[in-house]
Predict the structure of MCTP2 protein.
Amino acid sequence: KSANPQWREQFDFHYFSDRKDILDIEVWRKDNKKHEELLGTCHVDITALPAKQTNCLELPLERHPGSLLMLIAVAPCTGVSISDLCVCPLGDPSERQQISQRYCIKNSFRDIKDIGFLQVKVLKAVDLMAADFSGKSDPFCVLELGNDMLQTHTVYKNLNPEWNKVFTFPIKDIHDVLEVTVFDEDGDKPPDFLGKVAIPLLSV
């Protein structure tokens, strides 16, 4: 019931290449559980923004009245990575020693926000549901921790895909839950859900 809503939400997005990236934003109005109406869209060319600073943008909605006020900061990814299994970051003994030193008891209060990090090896899936008429699926895996999200590549025409990727996340809240979801890629259509597991960090 507001024409001037304030959300004050923060979202982190990660990309690891030099390709051109456009941030697409949609504003929706919801009357009830069933009825939704698009109030407008806008787009931000991330590559055109100055790096390592917070950019305050007022973005007019296309073909609709109103505008969005946003703060967007483009910064190098720190503590977040995707790597192959053969170059697992924790596989290096010297790096493990540095990490042990970084999180030893005497350094507990050096950086209060640095709780630690989570490294996940996504090896494979077995006996997935067939989502295509051919009796196969095109599965990929999405990992979410807090509002950090990373995903594997797609393995096409396979019900037993092997990804063999290593994902590293910074931990911002020890009470967060790691959610791992498998989807079937479906061209330009939204992906089909194939299954999900949730792992509380406190259980690790």
